[in-house]
Amino acid sequence: MSILEGALRFAGHLFWPSACPFCGALGTPACVKCLLPLLSPPLAADLGGVPHEAGGLHEGVLRDLVLELKYGRNRPLGVAMGRALGRIFPKPECHVLTPIPLHRESDRGYNQSMAIARGLSLEWEIPVADGLRWKEDRAAQTSLDEKERRGMPADALLGRGNILAGKKVTLVDDVSTTGTTLGRAARGVEAAGGRAVLAVTWTVVPKGLKPC
Fold first, then answer.
1. Which of 22, 52, 77, 129 could form a disulfide with 45 if both were Cys (CB 3.0 to 4.6 A apart)?
2. pTM score, two decimals?
């Protein structure tokens, strides 16, 4: 770590107290170098022609980090998680990174997938485009069983204007359970005139396990 980076971290800690839970470094919710050993790729899958990469299984410490990101509203943690993913996976050939949007009725106030996308953007130097929206109100996926998840309408996710038109898109989400949301997002990208070339998530849920 450079002297300047160390000074900035310390200054950040004075105003927004935080420390890496793994090494205790001040001014950061988690060090990228501490997150890297926790990841266990490759966990590649295919979403109807769209490659899917995940950092690890949704259990243990990786799951705990997702819970802190989502319910602790810890945006800086999401950025660090995204940066870690950006270092273990090669930079894709795409124009934009597009996070899965929050459900319309969500009261969380921020999109954890956007935070991860911001981190990926810093590593890959690919811009983030908030190019998808939910067509209608829908219960959060964590509240649904597997059959209800897979029953998501084919057009559940739509493009925002022409943001994705003519673009190669990498989709970003925190967790993949059945792959349904990412698959519907890929359809939404296509309907908007773009093409999903990759999906990246922090974790993937082992079959038969219900996420939190």
1. 52
2. 0.85
